[in-house]
């Protein structure tokens, strides 16, 4: 298992969450929209991560 890829994935997730928080404040997203975007991001990241093992 490649731990470097996992570390990069976690770093990207934190970066995405930080950026999304700034966008959410600017656009005044509700908590449901914020949750939906985060769930979508997690699903996409898991799909990308599992593709690297094929």
TrEMBL record:
It comes from the Bacteria. The chain crosses the membrane at residues 29-49. Keywords: Membrane, Transmembrane, Transmembrane helix. This is Putative membrane protein. It comes from Sphaerisporangium siamense. The lineage of its organism: Bacteria, Bacillati, Actinomycetota, Actinomycetes, Streptosporangiales.
């Amino acid at each position: 298992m490649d731990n470097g890829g996992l570390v990069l994935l976690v770093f990207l997730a934190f970066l995405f969450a930080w950026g999304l928080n700034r966008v959410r404040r600017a656009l005044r997203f509700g908590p449901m929209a914020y949750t939906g975007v985060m769930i979508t991001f997690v699903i996409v990241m898991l799909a990308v991560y599992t593709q690297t093992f094929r």
